[in-house]
């Protein structure tokens, strides 16, 4: 049984088929990238995996469980985390508070205990903070720990977005265009981090990306889609050499 | 309870005129919302000021009622324009909550100012529309007819304005993406002020047409009306001009019936409908607001 | 300039972040305890100030309730006076039936909280302005129920209220009532502070700033919205129960839209999103009528006697704050502290708002 599989996934918005019969499998521990022109449906696939949208057809299976039956807020608890293309951070909170929200999936305290702030709550808080600090160390976010998101530059925000997703301690990490808006140096750093994430934490990464340099640097396998439909699948080199992909997206 | 057909149609007519009145108010702030995404909680108070101005013009200066209409509409329009220039331009693009608080505060200030200028006593606005229109046993006062006719005219004019004039189209563009509208050379700020002008003028018209029906004008008239007109606009689908009219007609029609048959519910029937609509079809009858795209 | 050197996570988690906090807040509590005795000592004619302080504390509790919903969770309620009313009338009714204050107080808060929870259900998918209008509608409906259910509420005649009783001892003395309010305020402040430093508090703030990513972090949106409404309503209900004893006679006009706006004014002027904000706002609201009555004699008759002068003044102040100091009194206080702490390096641009442009979220 595959670690993570999408089977014949489709979604219709009115008359438009944003995603039309896409299937793929992801193996544990690999970096799987989805490429394609704008509007191909890549983010829509992510939105369906995160259960923000309901697919019209098809199935998403993760570790034997059918995701389309799971409510949106339980996805994090199952071990799937995501970042957003346009950065959906909590603007009026600090970096640390954002990361602590990321720990919510591991919440073990009840409302009443929290209102009274029992010792068990304090213990859990300490544990959450330790975990958040580990992620901060990993992504070198120490100088920004107590700053409001509104004051941070774009590159740092992208890192915080990634950090917040990592706080979920996911098994699968969905990265939506992690390199968009980043400089060459930042993109290279992002590549190293994705590698570290896969190697040190054993997290499977599913990525949507336009930056072919990054795609080549980190991907194990690549899927190309266009107009919501499957185009090609294989290693990065194979897909980029594929004539259909070149015609639709890359240019010869 | 009797269900005489004549009585029902009678109530229906009253309801339609009441709904048209709410609709005129709702038109005013849906206009502002469509253009600037601002919610104007002071719409009813603008109507109130229009009424008081009307009293000053007719009773104080002795001018005829029909001349009071364009004078008050112009005066309130300028007032609305100035409010935008002085206050609302500073807060474009800020979250809706800021605007709500701002317009509520303005409403308070307007009420206090009106109380200072015109005193605490209720005043009356005399109207030349004395008498009734009688059709086949149905009686409707001319004043109510005027409200209905006025609403139809205003709705028609506004529809054509937005659909067919350059300024109207520019207004829609400015509300959808202000930065892009600037790039297209649209004088966004002036257009927004123009919207406020129109909206305030419509409020003044509504006030003048309704003043004779409510017979006395006090400073608190605006508040209850604003809330009901809001309910109507939400029921019809906020952001939709025909929706606002439709929603207000629904409220306007149901209220007199509630008053006749279930008097305890008359005041709240509008809000019960509002709740029902918000729960069953949150976008209202003409959907405008949809989910944010991520 | 104080530099806090952190060596343990507990320093972040603690309520009193460093010794300065401990010093000032202990001082404040001591001052609050000593106040009624000092004010009544006969040296000054300030006994009425004890009553004022009680009212301010009650407003502060109500403000904290609204703060949880509006300041922290971002759901603007324009009908919160309804929860004040529910708390007040429930408490009054139960005490009329002979129930002891200790019980009726909690029942008032609990009932208010439950109704808040119930209100959360239809408003679950509403956002922004829709939600605010729904709260107005809710408040109007509650007002109507109060008027028509006269067997319980006294309808338009109103309901007289006696003094609260603790274990049979009736608290008629304003100083005793003051201490009752003080105890309730301190407990509610601790409750809200605990809430905001825990996972639930963070979840509420997440709801305010980005619902969609909150959901992706595992936050169950309907559940937390209900929690926000329920807690907010409960706290305001507690305030209402005390409020009943303060005003000693309940009439439905005490809980109208203007009152709801007064509560909102309080949290906005005080500073959204902080406990201090609710307290500062309450002080402001409590002192405003006092200030007005002092100044009234100096105003020309036309202005002084106008109906709606007080709301008019509210309006002006609220408008000035929202235009020029959206962070409220507490925000201004923080800026002043920052100014002194990093003097002379303070720059006005630290807090300058970015120019915002309008981009609609509607999709035609």
Q: TL;DR?
A:
The complex is a heterotrimer of chains A (252), B (294) and C (364). Chain A is of the alpha/beta class and 252 residues long. Chain A has ten helices and ten strands.
Short descriptors:
heterotrimer, A: 252 residues, alpha/beta, 6-stranded mixed beta sheet, 4-stranded antiparallel beta sheet, globular, C: 364 residues, mainly alpha, two-stranded antiparallel sheet, two-stranded antiparallel ribbon, 16 helices, 4 strands
What report would you give on this structure?
The complex is a heterotrimer of chains A (252), B (294) and C (364). Chain A has helices at 42-49, 75-78, 95-102, 111-116, 119-138, 154-166, 184-201, 212-218, 236-241, 243-250; strands spanning 4-13, 16-26, 31-35, 57-62, 65-66, 80-82, 172-176, 204-208, 221-226, 229-234. Chain A has 252 residues and is α/β, with parallel strands linked by helices. In chain A, helix 3 runs parallel beside helix 6 (154-166). Chain B has a two-stranded antiparallel sheet. In chain C, the strands form two sheets. Chain C has a two-stranded antiparallel sheet. Chain C has a two-stranded antiparallel ribbon with strand order 2-3. In chain C, a hairpin with a 2-residue loop joins strand 2 and strand 3 (169-170). Chains in contact: A-B, A-C, B-C. Chains B and C meet through helix 4, helix 6, helix 9 and helix 11 of B and helix 6, helix 12 and helix 15 of C.
Give the tally of β-strands of chain C: 4
**Share of residues in helices of chain A:** 25-40%
Strand order of the largest sheet of chain A: 6-7-8-3-9-10
Distance N to C terminus of chain C:
54 Å
Overall geometric form of chain A = globular
Average pLDDT of chain A = 89
Helix proportion of chain C:
55-70%
What best-fitting shape of chain C do the alpha-carbon axes yield? globular
- H/I helix tally of chain C: 16
Structural class based on helices, strands and sheet pairing of chain A:
alpha/beta
Strand order of the largest sheet of chain C: 1-4
């Amino acid at each position: 049984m595959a670690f993570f599989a999408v089977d014949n996934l489709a979604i219709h918005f009115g008359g438009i088929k944003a995603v039309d019969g896409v299937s793929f499998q992801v193996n544990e521990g690999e970096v799987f990238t989805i490429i394609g022109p704008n509007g191909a449906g890549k983010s829509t696939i992510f939105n369906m995996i995160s259960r923000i949208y309901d697919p019209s057809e098809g199935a998403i299976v993760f570790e034997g469980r059918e995701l389309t039956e799971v409510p949106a807020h339980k996805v994090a608890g199952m071990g799937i985390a995501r970042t957003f293309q346009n950065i959906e951070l909590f603007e009026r909170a600090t970096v640390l508070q954002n990361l602590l929200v990321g720990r919510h999936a591991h919440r073990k305290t009840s409302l009443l205990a929290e209102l009274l702030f029992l010792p068990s709550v304090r213990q859990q808080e300490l544990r959450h903070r330790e975990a958040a600090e580990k992620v901060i160390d990993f992504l070198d976010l120490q100088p920004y720990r107590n700053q409001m998101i509104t004051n941070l530059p774009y590159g740092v925000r992208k890192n915080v977005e990634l950090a917040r997703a990592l706080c979920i301690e996911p098994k699968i990490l969905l990265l939506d265009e992690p390199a968009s808006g980043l400089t060459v140096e930042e993109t290279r750093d992002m590549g190293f981090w994705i590698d570290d994430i896969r190697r040190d934490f054993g997290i499977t990464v599913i990525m949507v990306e336009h930056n072919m340099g990054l795609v080549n640097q980190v991907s194990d396998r690549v899927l190309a889609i266009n107009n919501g439909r499957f185009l090609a699948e294989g290693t990065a080199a194979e897909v980029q050499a594929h004539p259909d992909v070149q015609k639709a997206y890359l240019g010869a | 309870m009797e269900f005489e057909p004549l009585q029902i149609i009678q109530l229906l007519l009253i309801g339609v005129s009441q709904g048209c009145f709410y609709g005129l108010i709702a038109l005013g702030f849906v206009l502002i919302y469509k253009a600037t995404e601002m919610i104007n909680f002071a719409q009813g108070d603008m109507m109130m000021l229009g009424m008081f101005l009307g009293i000053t013009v007719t009773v104080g200066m002795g001018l005829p009622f029909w001349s009071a209409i364009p004078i008050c509409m112009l005066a309130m329009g300028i007032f609305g324009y100035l409010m935008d220039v002085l206050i609302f331009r500073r807060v474009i693009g800020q979250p809706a909550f800021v605007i709500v608080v701002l317009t509520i505060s303005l409403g308070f200030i307007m009420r206090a100012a009106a109380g200072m200028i015109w005193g605490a006593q209720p005043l009356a606005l005399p109207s030349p529309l004395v008498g009734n229109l009688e059709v086949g046993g149905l009686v409707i006062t001319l004043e109510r007819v005027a409200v209905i006719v006025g609403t139809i005219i205003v709705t028609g004019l506004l529809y054509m304005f937005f659909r067919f004039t350059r300024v109207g189209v520019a207004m829609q563009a400015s509300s959808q993406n202000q930065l892009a509208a600037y790039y297209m050379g649209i004088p966004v700020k002036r257009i927004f002020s123009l919207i406020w002008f129109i909206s305030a003028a419509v409020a003044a018209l509504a006030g003048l047409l309704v003043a004779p029906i409510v017979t006395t004008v006090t400073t608190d008239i605006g508040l209850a009306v604003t809330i009901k007109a809001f309910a109507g606009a939400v029921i019809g689908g906020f952001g939709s001009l025909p929706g606002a009219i439709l929603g207000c007609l629904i409220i306007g029609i149901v209220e007199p019936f509630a008053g006749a048959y279930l008097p305890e519910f008359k005041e709240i029937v509008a809000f019960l409908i509002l709740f029902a609509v918000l729960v069953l079809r949150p976008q209202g009858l003409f959907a405008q607001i949809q989910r944010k795209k991520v | 300039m104080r530099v806090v050197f952190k060596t343990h996570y507990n320093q972040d988690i603690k309520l009193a972040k460093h010794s300065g906090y401990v010093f000032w807040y202990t001082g404040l509590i001591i001052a609050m305890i000593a106040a009624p005795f000092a004010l009544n000592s006969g040296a000054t004619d300030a006994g009425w100030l004890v009553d004022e302080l009680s009212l301010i504390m009650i407003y502060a509790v109500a403000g904290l309730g609204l703060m949880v919903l509006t300041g922290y969770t971002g759901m603007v309620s324009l009908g919160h006076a309804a929860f004040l009313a529910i708390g007040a009338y429930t408490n009054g009714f139960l005490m009329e039936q002979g129930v002891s204050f200790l019980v009726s107080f909690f029942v008032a808060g609990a009932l208010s909280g439950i109704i808040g929870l119930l209100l959360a259900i239809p408003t679950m998918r509403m956002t922004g302005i829709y939600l605010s209008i729904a709260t107005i509608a809710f408040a109007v409906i509650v007002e109507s129920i109060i008027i028509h259910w006269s067997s319980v509420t006294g309808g338009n005649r109103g309901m007289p209220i006696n003094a609260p009783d603790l274990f049979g001892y009736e608290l008629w003395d304003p100083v005793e009532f003051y201490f009752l309010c003080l105890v309730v305020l301190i407990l509610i402040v601790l409750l809200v502070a605990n809430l905001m430093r825990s996972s639930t508090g963070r979840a509420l703030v997440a709801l305010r700033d980005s619902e969609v990513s909150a959901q992706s972090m595992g936050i169950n949106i309907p559940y937390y919205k209900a929690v926000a409404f329920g807690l907010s309503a409960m706290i305001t209900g507690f305030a209402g129960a005390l409020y009943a004893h303060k005003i000693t006679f309940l009439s439905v006009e005490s809980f109208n839209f203007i009152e709801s706006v007064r509560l909102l004014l309080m949290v906005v002027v005080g500073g959204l999103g902080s406990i201090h904000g609710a307290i500062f706002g309450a002080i402001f609201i409590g002192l405003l009528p006092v200030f007005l009555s002092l100044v009234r004699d100096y105003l020309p008759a036309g202005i002084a006697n106008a109906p709606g002068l007080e709301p008019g003044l509210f309006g002006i102040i609220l408008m000035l704050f929202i235009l020029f100091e959206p962070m409220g009194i507490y925000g201004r206080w923080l800026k002043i502290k920052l100014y002194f702490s990093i003097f002379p390096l303070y720059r006005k641009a630290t807090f300058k708002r970015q120019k915002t442009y309008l981009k609609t979220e509607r999709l035609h």
